[in-house]
Design a protein that fits this description.
313 residues, 3% strand, Rhopdopsin 7-helix transmembrane proteins
Amino acid sequence: MNMENQTVVTEFVLLGLSSNPQLQIFLFLVFLVIYVITLLGNMMIILLIRLNPQLHTPMYFFLFHLSLVDICYSSVTVPKMLQNFLAERKTISVNGCIVQNFFFLFSGGTEVFILSAMAYDRYAAICNPLHYVGTMNKQVCGHLLGGSCLSGFLYALANTLSILSLHFCGPNEINHFSCEPPLLLILSCSETLMPKLVLLTSIIIFGSSSFLLTFVSYTYIISAILRIHTAKGRRKAFSTCSSHLIVVVLFYGTGCFRYMKPTSEVSGFDRIISIQYSILTPMVNPIIYSLKNKDVKMALWKLFAKFKFPKES
């Protein structure tokens, strides 16, 4: 395509969730509360795991880093989203959009693989409890975490490099609150076949590998739980992985729906799905792990007890 006589776009307009000024103020307050809860909840998990020696186990090692990733994941999009709710010009530079896209994919990709590592950890704990300490030693945990970060980085890098090859010459309105690859492909005025193939291939390779590890782990976990003779034993075994299973279903379900569908115009339902996996999931993760995990609740009560004022004599 001849690009010589076409205007080069230097910034995008993020249309967000609504153009109604009064509704935008309401949405600003709602998402500000969600963001604050996300930060406080995940920082609470990080603090509890750091301060409580009883939580220095492989399961909480991964939960610690999942909370770090959730803070980054939410912070990639929400601050800009909040700014645009109050701004007259809801713009983001092309370079800023690409940078946001990179860290969005990096955080999301890393989270997917950390969830897979946590599934493998639960498999080792339930299916091979006698060898758990040796199987999930510090070196293995470090390799799983490093592999998760590297996989997320490669996933983000591949898609960001393909987007850098695109040209944008108008229109420049993104019908969304953030920059995601499918949205940039819609706006490009150059050939998008290769970036689409890169996006699809990376989703298949990275997504299927992480999903397969999680699926196989839970196949063995469920099989092992069903072989437990007592109902109490089954409940106890399932309780050790129920929190993680809820998080996996929330994250995978909405993320797969958004990225496996053909690239097209963004609907209101697409934006709701994006809110679910990129904003709400990082907020509910610490809530789920706090409410359904006895160790975390016990550590939380111990932490509160340290800050209690002494009773007056």
